[in-house]
Specification:
heterodimer; A: 55% helix; 15% strand; elongated; B: alpha+beta; Zincin-like; 4-stranded mixed β-sheet; 9 helices
Chain lengths: 121, 262
C-alpha cells in the first residue's frame, strides 16, 4: 500500500483497501488458504448479486498487491488455482503503519516527532 | 475462403506484372520465407506454461470433452491447461487449450461449452485453415510492399494495395463466419446448449469489468486495465452480443443456421 492510498474517512482495512478487497482479505486471514470458488460461496451470502468473475478479478488484484499468492493445485474437482496469504494481518498492519510513518517522517519530521512524543506522555 | 485465394493469386499476378521476368523468382522467395516461418512455428508446438490434461486431473472435463468429440466424429483431442488466471480458450491442430482462469469464472457446464466451441473449430477444419490464411495476410502485405516499392507502374501498385485491403476485409468476414459456425457446432455437441450463452455472457461481464465499464455499477470495485486491450480497425471476431444473439436465434428455432445444420 502506498501512503497516498490511505483513506482517512474509512475504518479498518477499508482505509487501505477497496471495500470488497478488504472483506476478502479479512476472510483470507481467517482461512489462510482458499480457492476463488470457496471465497465466492462465502461472499455470496453477504453480497448475493456478486459474480464469480468479480471474485476472480479481485483475488488476482490482491495477488498483484502482494497480499495473496496463487498456486496450481490438484484437488477434489480437478486442477485449480489456490490462493494463500503472504503475511498475517498483524504483519500487514505493521507494514501499513511503517509506510505511513515513513512518509510523515520524510515530509514533516519535527511535527511527527512532536506528536508522537506528546502521545507517549 | 475462395475469395481469399483469388486475392492471393491476383497479388501473385500483379507482382509478375510489376517485376516482369524477376517476378516469379521474387514471388517464390517470399512464399518460401513465409512457408519456412509457418513450418518453424508449427513444429515448435506448445510448451512452457501448458499442463497436459489427463483423466485423473479433471475427470468431468476429460469425459465431457471425450463425449463431445465422439459426437462430433473426432478422436479425443489433446487438451492443454494453461497456467493463466485470465479466462482464455483457443485451439490449434487437434489441440484445445483452456486456461485455469476459465474454471474460476465459469461453472462446469459453461467450461464445457467453451471447450465445445473449440471442438467446433477443429471439426470445421479452422485449426488447419486459419494459420494458412493468417500467413496469407503477411504474404499479401509483403507482396504489396514489393510491388509498391519497385514502383514501375502506378496502376499495378494501386491494384496491389486494393487487393491487400480486400484481403483484410475478406479475412475478417471469413473469420467472423467461422466463429459463428463453431458456436453452431458447439450447440449441437452440448447437452445443455444454453450453457454456451451463459458462458459468453459471463466472459463478456469479465471483460467489461476488467476494462472498467462496470465501475459505476459496482462502486466498491476499482477495476483497472491490467493489460493493453487490443484494438483493430477491422474486427476479425464477432462481439459477445452478436454471438449470444445468433445462439438465441438458433436455439429458439429461428432457422438462421438451419441450411447449414446437417
Amino acid at each position: 500500500m502506498k501512503p497516498h492510498e490511505f483513506k482517512l474517512t474509512e475504518e479498518g482495512m477499508k482505509a487501505v483497501l477497496p471495500p470488497l478487497e478488504a472483506e476478502i482479505m479479512e476472510h483470507m486471514w481467517k482461512v489462510k488458504v482458499a480457492t476463488a470458488g470457496q471465497v465466492y460461496e462465502w461472499i455470496r451470502e453477504r453480497h448475493p448479486e456478486i459474480r464469480r468473475s468479480t471474485v476472480s478479478i479481485l483475488m488476482n488484484r490482491l495477488c498483484e498487491r502482494g497480499l495473496l499468492k496463487r498456486s496450481v493445485e490438484t484437488g477434489r474437482g480437478g486442477m485449480r488455482y489456490v490462493y494463500s496469504i503472504t503475511s498475517t494481518r498483524e504483519e500487514f498492519e505493521e507494514k501499513v503503519v511503517k509506510s505511513i510513518l515513513d512518509a510523515l517522517m520524510s515530509n514533516f519530521r519535527e511535527a511527527t516527532y512532536a506528536y508522537i512524543s506528546k502521545m507517549k506522555k | 475462403m475462395a475469395m481469399l485465394l483469388i486475392i492471393l493469386l491476383t497479388e501473385a499476378v500483379l507482382i509478375g506484372l510489376a517485376l516482369s521476368h524477376v517476378g516469379p523468382v521474387v514471388l517464390a522467395a517470399i512464399a518460401l520465407i513465409v512457408l519456412m516461418f509457418y513450418s518453424f512455428l508449427s513444429l515448435r508446438g506448445a510448451n512452457g506454461r501448458y499442463i497436459p490434461l489427463s483423466r485423473e486431473d479433471m475427470p468431468w472435463l476429460y469425459d465431457g470433452i471425450a463425449t463431445m468429440a465422439r459426437k462430433a466424429g473426432l478422436k479425443m483431442p489433446r487438451v492443454l491447461l494453461l497456467d493463466e488466471y485470465v479466462p482464455l480458450a483457443y485451439s490449434f491442430k487437434d489441440t484445445v487449450v483452456l486456461s485455469l482462469g476459465l474454471f474460476e469464472v465459469l461453472d462446469r457446464e459453461e467450461s464445457l461449452a467453451v471447450a465445445a466451441h473449440e471442438l467446433g473449430h477443429i471439426k470445421n477444419g479452422d485449426t488447419k485453415t486459419f494459420p494458412v490464411l493468417a500467413y496469407g495476410r503477411y504474404l499479401t502485405l509483403v507482396l504489396t510492399a514489393v510491388v509498391v516499392l519497385t514502383g514501375r507502374s502506378l496502376s499495378v501498385a494501386v491494384s496491389a494495395l486494393t487487393m491487400a485491403c480486400l484481403y483484410e476485409l475478406a479475412w475478417a468476414r471469413f473469420h467472423k463466419e467461422r466463429e459463428f459456425l463453431a458456436d453452431e457446432t458447439a450447440l449441437r455437441l452440448l447437452e445443455t446448449p444454453m450453457s454456451l450463452k451463459r458462458a459468453l455472457e459471463e466472459l463478456k461481464y469479465y471483460e467489461d469489468l476488467r476494462v472498467g465499464m462496470r465501475s459505476n455499477a459496482l462502486p466498491n470495485i476499482e477495476p483497472e486495465i491490467e493489460r493493453k486491450q487490443r484494438t483493430s480497425i477491422i474486427e476479425t471476431h464477432p462481439t459477445y452480443d452478436e454471438r449470444v444473439l445468433r445462439i438465441l436465434i438458433e436455439i429458439n428455432g429461428g432457422g438462421i443456421f438451419k441450411n447449414r445444420i446437417q
